[in-house]
Amino acid sequence: xxxxxxxxxxxxxxxxxxxxxxxxxxxxxxxxxxxxxxxxxxxxxxxxxxxxxxxxxxxxxxxxxxxxxxxxxxxxxxxxxxxxxxxxxxxxxxxxxxxxxxxxxxxxxxxxxxxxxxxxxxxxxxxxxxxxxxxxxxxxxxxxxxxxxxxxxxxxxxxxxxxxxxxxxxxxxxxxxxxxxxxxxxxxxxxxxxxxxxxxxxxxxxxxxxxxxxxxxxxxxxxxxxxxxxxxxxxxxxxxxxxxxxxxxxxxxxxxxxxxxxxxxxxxxxxxxxxxxxxxxxxxxxxxxxxxxxxxxxxxxxxxxxxxxxxxxxxxxxxxxxxxxxxxxxxxxxxxxxxxxxxxxxxxxxxxxxxxxxxxxxxxxxxxxxxx
Length: 372
What we know:
Layout (H helix, E strand, L loop, with lengths): L8 E5 L5 E10 L4 E7 L20 E6 L7 E12 L9 E4 L11 E3 L5 E8 L10 E5 H14 L5 E2 L2 E5 L2 H7 L7 E6 L4 H4 L7 E5 L2 E2 L5 H7 L6 E8 L2 E8 L1 E2 L19 E3 L4 E5 L2 H6 L9 E6 L4 H4 L7 E5 L2 E2 L3 H13 L4 E8 L2 E8 L4
């Protein structure tokens, strides 16, 4: 339970009850990892990392740890799943196992049957506090690069791309002309960042970064983070229903450590109901700019009312949000949005792609036209 800090000196207890001095070389809060340098009084035996990416669901594994203070406990099970996201951090990619893992197992190794470490035990899911057969380990593919950086530099440097992203849903994929819903959709681009310099735009879908395919949206932050700072890589992008390549020079990620009420809207001149989406919209007026604290550069139409159980309500659109694009066309009036909806219906589609600026920043949404 000791929260260790860099350069801390602590005592490490081994399974044979021998206690040795150790120094903290470095730690990384984002992956919940720390490296200790043990000062031995005799030769120690070490183990090697294996390739967690080669591990298959159903493979037998062995976990070692000190559950409830019972040092040197070994448990066996199978690899239940890979790539688990348990909302522990920005780079979640956990291995799941049914081997008994309890409090005190954290930090212990997860071995394959070759005796290689393919994971570091870190968490359990348990309503009772004890093992129910759902344990998680940081895969060696994530932990090994972090550990090597901590040993070499005492800290971890991660790559930075400079975009806000979101998942590509089946509706969005269909609207953009993608055969499969994969990749990371760029919701907004951070000014002055590597993406802006590479002329990447909101609405682009990142399909590949370097030589690595972005199968899911949450894969991209980890892929970028593991790319060496200063490297220039090719980003494969889907834009306007065709593939393009942009060269991106990865920058260094720097650590950085008003809620709007759903009130009944006042009537606004120029307000218009767009029944197909379940919204009442208005062009931006000086009064609305002041009321919703919109910036001078804000563009689009303002959401004044959201009909309950409408397509817009189901996607989380709220009063005060801005809609600035429909089907990747800039819009400035409710009538403009209605024209775009008619184009979609005429083409035989039933989903319209809108870009919304709200409390959580910019994001794209695939809205079904009319009731389900």
